[in-house]
Design goal:
Largest sheet: 7 strands, mixed
Number of helices: 0
Strand content: over 45%
Structural class: mainly beta
Shape: globular
Radius of gyration: 13 Å
Distance between the termini: 40 Å
């Protein structure tokens, strides 16, 4: 089992930045994605890093950057908008399974 832990969420004003972190109990996060779920909406894909390949949802291109540093994956979020408010989840593919964290709340508000 891989225990996935996210951190770095919080309250930020529009135009601000946050950097989310994800770790998974000692696993190297070779294939890891971020998703988000806003109130009343379905969970949606945000970004993925697999090896050196990175993919982004259209609505975050140019604003969010996913990266990996050893056993951590980061989601640098810049130019945040009201509509980025959501719980952000890290999804790790390891041991031929997908593991989810508990999520970290990101609130964009003035």
């Amino acid at each position: 089992q891989a225990q996935v832990v996210e951190s770095g969420g919080g309250l930020v004003q529009p135009g601000g930045s946050l950097n989310l972190s994800c770790s998974a109990s000692g696993f190297t996060l070779w294939d890891t994605a971020w998703y988000r779920q806003a109130p009343g909406k379905e969970r949606e894909f945000v970004a993925r890093i697999k090896g050196e390949e990175r993919n982004y949802a259209d609505f975050v291109k140019g604003r969010f950057t996913i990266s990996r540093d050893g056993y951590m994956v980061y989601l640098q979020m810049n130019s945040l908008k009201f509509e980025d408010t959501a719980v952000y989840y890290c999804n790790v593919y390891a041991l031929r399974e997908h593991f989810w964290g508990q999520g970290t709340q990101v609130t964009v508000s003035s």
